[in-house]
Design goal:
The protein is α+β, with helices and mostly antiparallel strands. The protein is built from three helices and four strands; from the N terminus they run ααββββα. Strands 1-2-3-4 form a four-stranded antiparallel beta sheet. The termini are far apart.
């Protein structure tokens, strides 16, 4: 009986902890540099992206929270790998410097020259 009660308490604590962690994932409005709607400010920020990439993000994911932005070069072109806090709602996105959204990782899309 004690084991069942302890297990139930542990499950409740785990669920509560996970819910609280999600509440604090975004940054305050004055620190809104990395995401469209708030989030942690590390690495490449929205304002560091070329204007066409920013416009594509604003069009495709206007309310999404960005988890990370990675800048990569492949075949002489620059791409930005955008990952979101809620990947089920906003899947990983590859955007070329000119704002073109790629269907997959650049090396799988672009032929070698």
């Amino acid at each position: 009986m004690k084991t069942k009660i302890l297990s139930a308490v542990a499950v409740v604590a785990l669920i509560t902890g996970c819910a609280e962690t999600r509440k604090h994932a975004g940054a305050s409005a004055e620190n809104d540099n990395n995401v469209l709607t708030g989030g942690p400010v590390v690495g490449t920020r929205i304002k560091d992206l070329p204007a066409p990439v920013q416009a594509t993000l604003q069009q495709r994911a206007p309310t999404a929270e960005i988890a990370g932005i990675d800048k990569e070069r492949e075949n002489g072109r620059t791409y930005y790998k955008i990952s979101f806090i809620e990947p089920g709602r906003n899947p990983l996105m590859w955007i070329a410097e000119d704002g073109t959204v790629l269907p997959d990782r650049p090396s799988k899309v672009m032929p070698e020259h």
